[in-house]
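User: Acyl-CoA acyltransferase, Bradyrhizobium lablabi:
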Amino acid sequence: MIRCREIESADLAAVADLLTRGFEGRSRDYWMEGLRRTSVREVPEGFPRFGYMLDHEGTPVGVLLLIYAGRDHGGGTCIRCNVSSWYVEPAFRNYAPMLTKIAQRHKHVTYVNISPAYWTWPTIEAQGFRAYCDGLFFSLPALSRPAKGMRVEVVQQDALAIDGLSKTDVALLARHAAYGCLSLACHAADGHSSPFVLQPMRVRRIALPAMQLIYCHDVADFVACAGAIGRFLLRRGRISVALDANDHMKDLVGFYRALRGRKYFKGPQCPRLADLSDTELVIYGP
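Assistant: Predicted structure for Acyl-CoA acyltransferase:
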């Protein structure tokens, strides 16, 4: 008998075993650490903490990880769900649609898929998803002119207040620092401050020590602070920052790679670029 149900805490070890079999190159420790982080993070009320599984006589034979988070939108709160890792044992693939059907049933939720393998794009699009990001721009921010008097501050996971930033921004920076990200606050000479979250990224086929931009208020903020951030990173051995983009960025030095980094959404709110906070990239890792 096969049934689809929420993943519970007692299932985590077996789910990690299943995912380890399904994703070559990902260790069991990788999955267990991500599931541990998921077990303690805030989740909007009424939504599953971990996602769903196909249960065959008490054993998981399929899994779809989901990461729910609240987002400020138009003075209210909207719900975003990162449709993360999916795997079903070959003998049970006929039951795989049960997972996607139950996972995407909320019409008011915006679902995002930020790491689709290229061979899954037709399937994702057939499910009603639309691309909102077509590629990545690999910037070389140290070649940008630094703003005079700008200061870069590293934000630690125990931070409670940062000059010029809201409590919400500080909480986001501290939370992502705890995930192992590099959280920064850039302070301009005029007193304006901007939050940034970056993460080391694995770049295949390109020998480039790169960081990925996980979060900022707006891409324009990164452009304005690129020179200061670039010099800060250069002292730490990183020369590039990759950010979501749909074309070449004329205000930054670098190069655009179409298709790499494609991201999809389905639901009422199209996600903006430069917001990958509280997604699989930081909770499970790159």
